[in-house]
Every structure is written in structure tokens, then in C-alpha cells.
Design goal:
Blueprint: E1 2-5, E2 8-11, H1 26-35, H2 43-57, H3 64-68, H4 75-81, H5 86-94
Antiparallel strand pairs: 1-2
Helix pairs in contact: 1-5, 2-5
Length: about 100
């Protein structure tokens, strides 16, 4: 599927996750965050996004528990920054596939 964000056409799956990470940039992340109910991405959000992308590039499976142990953010803060399904929202904004641990 194609989706237009800020005049740029990106490829997404049926759930709205990017299918080609090379199409990701910070402007796309900001727009996806708005669609997900996060009006502004703070430095804390970007730290988590950077961590998620790094783990993805290293092919390390992601889970909420792993993020809580990462030292980047505790689980409570993760839920506060990405409410209602933090790992699903955070990975979508980061432009990476939905983790297998997410339903």
C-alpha cells in the first residue's frame, strides 16, 4: 500500500507500518506520531526511537521488558510517552516492523 506524508509517498503494510525502512525520516516519524495521538516528539521520544532502530538494525528482538531494562527509559515512562500500546506505536513511528511480541 502507498501512503502520502508531507508530499512524500511511502510504502506501508495494512497496519500502517513502513515496509521500506529507507523511506523513513524524522518528518515522517513526526507525522506518524501525530496520527498516533502524539502531537510532539520530545528528546525522550527520539532517544527511544534511536534505541529501537539500533536494536532493529542489529536484528535483536524487541519487547517492552527489554526496553525497560535498556537504561533508555523505564517501563512506566515508556507507557506515558507512547500511550495505549507503547511498543506498537513506538516501532511504527520509528519506521520498523511491528515486533513479534506485539499482538
Amino acid at each position: 500500500m502507498e501512503k502520502a506524508i508531507n508530499g512524500k509517498t511511502i510504502q506501508v503494510n495494512e497496519e500502517g507500518y513502513l515496509t521500506d525502512f529507507s523511506q523513513w525520516d524524522k518528518n515522517i516519524a513526526t507525522e506518524i506520531a501525530k496520527e498516533e495521538g502524539i502531537p510532539e516528539l520530545t528528546n525522550e521520544h527520539w532517544s527511544i526511537i534511536d534505541y529501537l532502530q539500533d536494536q532493529y538494525k542489529k536484528e535483536i528482538p524487541l519487547s517492552i521488558r527489554k526496553i525497560g531494562k535498556s537504561g533508555v527509559v523505564d517501563i512506566e515512562k515508556f507507557y506515558a510517552l507512547f500511550p495505549q500500546g507503547p511498543l506498537k506505536k513506538a516501532t511504527k513511528i520509528a519506521g520498523i516492523p511491528k515486533p513479534a511480541s506485539c499482538i
